C-alpha cells in the first residue's frame, strides 16, 4: 500500500503562536517579539526577547530571553559573603517569573552575616507544556486527550499533526517533528481519541 504524504515540519514553530490573552482570555497572536490580542486589542512588545527551542541534537532547552514571561522561572544567586568572603549560593523555582525577587538576602553559614545577592532568572518551558515559546502564554489550540493535553501552536502545526497522526502509512524524514512525537500520541490504541481531539482543535482554529 502506498505511503501517505506528510508535509515537512522539523520542529515546533517558535513564532506565529495562537495564545490566550492574559488580560481578557480571548485569542491573541505572538509573532516575532510582539503579542497582540484580537479581542481586547491590547499588545506588548519585548524587543530584546528571543523565543526558545529544544535542540534536536543534544535535547537541551535553549531558553527564551523574554522578561515579559508568564510561565515558571528558575532563580539563582551566587556571590561572596561580605564579611568573610565565603562563597554563597541560592536557587529556587517560582511558578511565575513575575513572582521571583530581584535580590536575595543570603545568610553566611560561617560568620552569619547577611549579604544581598543579585538574582538571575531563567525561564522554564518543558517540551510538553502547552505554552508559546516566547512569552509562556497558554496556547489557544489545546484540548484534553487520552489523559494528556493535545496542543498545536498554530494552524500549520495543527495541519501537520492531523496529517501525521491520522495517516495509516507514514513516510517521514528522520529527526522531523513526527519522528519525535510522544508515544501516547502515536499509539494505535489512542487513534480514535486523538482523532476526536484534532477535530476539536480544528473547530477552535
Q: Which strand order do you get reading across the main beta sheet? A: 2-3-4-5
Distance between the termini: 32 Å
Instruction: Give the SSE string.
Output: EEEEEEEEEEEEEEHEHH
Query: Quick check: average pLDDT?
Result: 88
Helix content: 10-25%
Task: Supply the key terms.
single chain; 205 residues; alpha+beta; three-stranded antiparallel β-sheet; elongated
Question: What would you say this structure looks like, in words?
Answer:
This protein has 205 residues and is an alpha+beta fold. It has two domains: 10-67 and 128-204, no CATH class; 73-123. The protein is built from three helices and 15 strands. It has helices at residues 155-166, 183-186, 191-204; strands at 4-5, 17-20, 27-31, 34-37, 43-45, 53-54, 61-62, 73-80, 87-94, 103-107, 114-118, 120-123, 141-145, 148-152, 170-171. The strands form six sheets. Strands 2-3-4-5 form a four-stranded antiparallel sheet, with no helix packed on it. It has a three-stranded antiparallel sheet with strand order 9-8-12, with no helix packed on it. Strands 1-15 form a two-stranded parallel ribbon. Helix 1 runs antiparallel to helix 3. The longest helix has 14 residues, at 191-204. The chain is elongated, with a radius of gyration of 21 Å.
Amino acid at each position: 500500500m502506498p505511503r501517505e504524504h506528510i508535509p515537512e515540519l522539523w520542529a515546533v514553530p517558535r513564532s506565529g503562536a495562537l495564545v490566550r490573552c492574559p488580560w481578557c482570555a480571548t485569542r491573541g497572536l505572538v509573532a516575532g517579539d510582539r503579542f497582540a490580542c484580537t479581542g481586547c486589542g491590547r499588545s506588548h512588545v519585548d524587543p530584546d526577547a528571543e523565543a526558545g527551542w529544544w535542540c534536536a541534537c543534544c535535547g537541551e532547552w535553549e531558553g527564551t530571553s523574554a522578561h515579559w514571561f508568564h510561565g515558571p522561572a528558575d532563580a539563582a544567586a551566587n556571590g561572596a559573603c561580605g564579611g568573610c568572603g565565603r562563597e554563597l549560593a541560592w536557587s529556587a523555582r517560582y511558578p511565575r517569573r513575575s513572582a521571583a525577587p530581584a535580590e536575595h538576602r543570603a545568610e553566611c553559614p560561617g560568620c552569619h552575616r547577611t549579604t544581598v545577592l543579585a538574582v538571575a532568572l531563567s525561564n522554564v518551558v518543558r517540551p510538553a507544556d502547552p505554552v508559546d515559546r516566547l512569552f509562556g502564554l497558554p496556547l489557544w489550540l489545546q484540548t484534553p486527550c487520552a489523559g494528556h493535553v493535545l496542543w498545536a501552536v498554530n494552524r500549520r502545526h495543527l495541519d501537520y499533526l492531523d496529517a501525521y497522526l491520522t495517516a495509516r502509512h507514514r513516510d517521514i524524514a528522520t529527526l522531523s517533528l513526527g519522528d519525535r512525537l510522544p508515544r501516547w500520541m502515536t499509539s494505535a490504541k489512542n487513534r480514535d481519541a486523538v482523532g476526536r481531539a484534532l477535530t476539536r482543535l480544528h473547530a477552535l482554529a
